[in-house]
Amino acid sequence: MQTTKLSTKSILPLTCSRSGTCCFGKAVMLNPWELFSFSKEKKVSPREFRDLYTDFGGIRLTFNGKQDKKGQNACSQYIDNHGCSVHQGRPLACRLYPLGRQIQFEKAHYIFEGAQFPCLTDCAEVLDLPKLSVGEYLKGQGAEPFEKAQDEYLIVMQNIADIAFELLLDSGLSVSGDTKTLSLWREMGSEFPEKLAERIGKDWIDALMIPKITEVIEDPIDFAQKHNNLLQLKAQEEFGALKTLEEVHKAAVLMMGVALHLSRGLGADTKGIAELWIETAKNHGAKE
């Protein structure tokens, strides 16, 4: 699909009419900070919010509310004739809409899909409202801390993948002639999220999406870094004394699965990332 790239100075009809049409039929992906923010606004535990209102272990917001005229279900947090019930806790995807955010070469770009501004299809009245620059809109939406969370969790994602690389490349597994590991990495890159969540298992899904962080952390970077440390410690405890290459293989597949599942929650190109990581492993001697 065609995308239109924007700068923070681009002027668009971004004053929202708050008609609620964008709260139907979307796929809103979540990272752990966003799930935590939702739960705090909802005044429930992250586990409760995850179990009640998300799919695939917490990486996607559930849309199971009333249907609109197109037959699209409303977000689980949408209240008819009111709007979002947890507006202050809403995730980055909702704060950016109708824009998207791409990160290329460590620089963020804002985009919208298609040649025509998306809101005009269902909310043409925005043309009669004041126009804003992309930067003004993002400031008004309070997007900055959620962008920081997304960027920090991209680092967490890579750190988890690095555990998988170490297990494959530094343990003797790759030089043993193993071809199963990369084959499964490729399979997981294209796997349906419900299947990948099942493959990872409840224990690691919980560690990934509802970390045991008991202290109140307001800063998303601090939250993600604390979470990263917990994940690294868990991996060290579970995989620090593996005895057979088969155990190492299973651990390398599991860790790559966790990294890929997080990538989907971050709205990344999971298949493309899997292919990149496979090529990286091959360049370091792994075989498929």
UniProtKB/TrEMBL annotation:
It comes from the Bacteria. This is Zinc/iron-chelating domain-containing protein. It comes from Polaribacter butkevichii.
